[in-house]
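Recap for those who missed Tuesday's class. We walked through two folding examples back to back. For each one, the amino acid string is listed first and its predicted structure tokens come directly after. Nothing is annotated here on purpose, so try labeling regions yourself before you check the end of the notes.
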Amino acid sequence: MRIISLLPSATEICFALGLSDELVGVTHECDYPSAALVKPKITKSKAKEQLSSADIDSLVRSQLDETGSIYELDLDALEYLKPDLILTQRLCTVCAVTYDYVAEQALKISTKPSVVNLEPRTLDEVFDSIMEVGRLTGKENAGEYVSTLRKRVDEISNEVRQLTKRTVLFLEWADPPFASGHWIPELIEMGGGINTKSFKHSPSRQISWQDVNEAKAEVIVLAECGFGVERQLQDAEILVRNLNYKPKEIWIADGSQYFSRPGPRLVESREILAGILHPEIRDKILHEYIARGEVQLIKIAS
């Protein structure tokens, strides 16, 4: 089988299930594991990452209005790679090439590949996606792999069950602010937190700075879609300038590698949240993420 993944999360699933040889094409955003970096890239983004977050937001909105997508698909490469299976999604037009467009183009490819929509909104549905890829590709190890992930989830649940809960505001974008949606509010609850402003199992959406301040969250987590920690430092300054109260803590986490991708590492995302929310277990959980520069506590001026 020849597989093309149009999602970083699907690429991670393929590698986790031992499908690296069958994976013949990926997107320009598929950067994990490192072996994905050498796979042929069949997409590129029209957005300019060097722009400010406010300008990126404006550009994305205008491109979606004009063309319905912020990505370009290399149709010649798609034909050259002759896939049997294309993994994509309908969940978010900002996250990947739209499903309908991919399905339309697949009809023109000589191999007539199957186009499969992976659209999880919850952690359980992420596990279902892993099982679906296993079923489609004949990988019987998918069940065992999912069982291992579920065991890690249960271990964290048991560890935080008796610990003090804290209120949380999780932002997926800072300028303008977007409160978390889909699986993230669920991960916060499972990690022992209390959501303030969020949209559980629904798309994240823009909120006002008044909403941010009225939430009065004890902990604010900034994990912007597509950005690592270093890029988000400038947006953390915007966040702090717009606060009219002092939260107990503000954290930046790597949204690109963890929270934004509905793949196997959502289990690690949940562990990160447990460490952020509970100082009692923080050192044990977060020290490696902090050492790698994937999580950072922001100092708040007195």
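Example two. Treat it independently of the first, because the proteins are unrelated.
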Amino acid sequence: MVDLVSIGEPMLEFNQQPGTDAETAALGRRFYLEGFGGDTSNAAIAAARAGCRVAYVTAIGDDPAGDRFAELWTAEGIDMSGVRLSNTHPTAVYFVTHGPRGHEFRYYRQGSAASTMSPVDMPKSLIENAKFVFASGVSQAISPNAADAVFHAFDLARAAGVKVAYDTNYRARLWPVPRARAVMHHAVAMADIALPSLEDAQMLTGLNDPAAIVDFYLRLGPKLVVLKLGDKGARLGTPDGHVDIPPFPCRFIDGTGAGDTFCGNFLARLIAGDQPADAARYAGVAAALKTEGFGAVAAMPHEPVVRAAMATT
């Protein structure tokens, strides 16, 4: 039995590394560090490192990238009974570059194994015996059948009394705003917890004020909304009011996966029994610590590191 079932698409990551101008000029190429990505896989790993029992539901290719993920999830103690192996579709990859505008992404995911997921791939028993099911806008954006798979998983969870959490995580290259808005807002309406980020929410709602955005999502149906504000912290809302979660100071290097780190740690701490505001403060510290290293997964902190950082404030 697991506490959290996370659903979505893993992506092998190649993250640009800093090098001297002389090295770059002499070699005529950039240096990339291999790592791991995919928002819901990242969140699953973050939750596992916070002490949560986690299962991941996806499809991966029978290829070296898929092998690397299987090794990673095994090392992190993640249940892979919901992972399907495809002989005909590859595991997705992406590249991260860093420049004046921050980190930028280039994805190679069309026709990925995960995009072939459908409702029949959702493991009924695994979902019905969990405490939370988690998915994101990316989980649904990769294909229409994957969108239906997430909706089916949410239906199974709700029927069994399992709580549902959803991160909007809008990606403009995957789908246009009108369709994204329709699908995501329907998913949010099925969720107990919504975990949007400010930039996504501004695009999807047309609102700018964090308080108004939190109230907008609360009106869709969730009883708890946590709006991620990046280096401004977070804003937590319930029907009883809002709470501001201050940012944790950090030495920023790479923001890749910070929001996923927040989501995974927040859900892990809720499952452990923390009150929502306390869970959000813990998650904020974990997310800040992740930005102090390169890559979505490599820099994710384990619980003792987060606790030690929290003890300094």
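Answers for example two:
The two ends are 36 Å apart (CA to CA).
The chain has one domain: 4-9+38-89+118-310.
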